[in-house]
Amino acid sequence: MKFLVRRIIFYVITAWAAITLNFVIPRLMPGNPVQSLINKFQGQLSTSATHSLYVLFGLDKKQSLWDQYWTYWGELLHGNLGISFAYFPTPVSEVIGQALPWTIALVGLSTIISVVLGTLLGTFIGWRRGTWMDGVLPVTTFFSSVPYFWLGLIFIAVFAVLLPVFPAGGGYDGALIPAFNTEFIGSVLQHAALPAITIVLSSVAGWILSQRNMMVTVTSEDYVTVAQAKGLKERTVMFDYAARNAILPQVSGFALSLGFVVSGTLVMELVFSYPGIGYSLFQAINAHDYPLMQGIFLVITISVLIANIIADMVYVFLDPRTRQEG
Amino acid sequence: MNTVSTQAPDSTRGSVRGTGAGRPVLEIKNLSVDYGYGEDRVHALRNVSLTLREGEVLGLAGESGCGKSTLVYGATRLLPPPGLISSGEVLYYPEDGGEPVDILRQPEDALRASRWQDTAIVFQGAMNSLNPVHRIGRQITDAIAAHRPETTKAERQDRARELLDMVGIDPGRISSFPHQLSGGMRQRVMIAMALALEPRVLIMDEPTTALDVVMQRQIIEQIVDLRQNLGFSVIFITHDVSLLIEIADRIAIMYAGDIVEQGPASRMYRQPRHPYTRGLLNSFPPLRGPRREMTGIPGSPPDLVNLPTGCPYHPRCPYAMPICSEKIPTLIEPTAGGSEPGRLVACWLEEDAEATVPPELAVRA
Question: Domain containing A34: what range?
Fold first, then answer.
């Protein structure tokens, strides 16, 4: 328990630092949001409009940095992340709230599929080293070495244009009204298929390779030989003794990649015009939409932290040696 | 010599001591093991034959890399790749006196079923023999569950506690993880685990190597006690010949992948008949008895890839003759230097009719 408490304190401090940095960095940048908004409208704003913008952003009060910091925390705890420029006047939290589920569902699920599939394949390949299964490795490594955007484009060209089985982009059929019915969900799944397949295909090799290598290492450990000598079933030896130990580094890798679920799929969402958080970030950058960027960075930071917390807990659960009794 | 083994009267140790009369349990015949494939493979074992009899402690000694461990891994089909058994057979004689089974040709599932039940092994590395992520209780009970599926979970737990108690560990430690135990305790847990199914043969591959001397002594005494109470046969592998003389009934000495001499432990100690055994014994100081000069063996163990022709020991042997570098001697009952029951030697001094056995290798009264 002591261990968990220590970890939680660590994460609270990390979260505080991340949120504070998120506050400080934009304020160190030259200019201010009203200036960039004026730029956006290319001087077509009247003086009174400019003034009302200053009022709207709260920049007329000439607050000290310290007061701003406290206000920032207050707004943050109320879920208020400011107003987006690019989608003016939609609040940032609403923009993120719309984009986030798409990313989490698609990329999260594909990552989990990739990890599970890769770990299982790696377990078998590592266990049956020297059989035909070794041939799987070069094939998957080939797909992962192809640049992702190119793989995505090829898949669109083949499966959406040449053989129109899947749609070329978007999150769902634009003619449908989002609702919880079979038609809409079917459309979502159909739109998710190509991006999901390309994500899995390009990332699975890494999981296979690391699990295979760990399996090979662990298989030569004495306790695996002991398990064989005990006459346990081969499946028991393979999963309970070999894979059970080989999987430990996979867990840390999985945690890291979960953090990237939110941030690292910019290319995929661009290629497939998928309405996720990466696509929003891209638009925010293009439109100099600071509040949105700030909000997205905050969400990314927090999701990385949460992923790490989960991985920590899972690791403690899986490896008794990390549990510190006291 | 006034330690564990001699304190026990000979009658309690069975009638096998020195006579070689007991029923065989495990018979290794002409076992050859190679590491690797093709031209540059290493012949780790060359036609090794060895018999373990009921209730005896058979000691297997030799320098590092002579094939001691390879012999037992090969005989139990646990050789890690690229180890490959190239010929031979390993016969296991069932308890009911039925037909012997060749372990090397046993189908996979039959082999799995017989493992641990017939032959259990305590491995070299006490530190790594236990799965770090499972509690020790689970590791003892999973073997019982695999072989005796009819037992209930509670029965298996009770048995595990009983086993831990037997090797001198608090049964409450059943839910400890391996990293919470000391090296000595882990080795005891391994021994408890090995005895879980009351096997007929217990193979111990340098069970005390990683432990300090006090712990070594405790564990060895424990093994001797357990063997007296449970009556299993032991193959004890070590490079510590003086230890073997204390606990073993018979000793086999290995050199470069072959057995060069075997015989009753006390006779081997007092009267080595192979020049290598003599050299090996002279490299340990005797703890008791008259002082003798320690000589050691000149040279180093041979490279198994490039074995010398003839007897592999001849480059280091003070008694080498021309024939030694030409032909490999066979393991036979020695007669030239005087005959002895239960003794086998592979040396041209005994085989070549024209050779004269030096007095230090001949039978003395």
Answer: 2-77
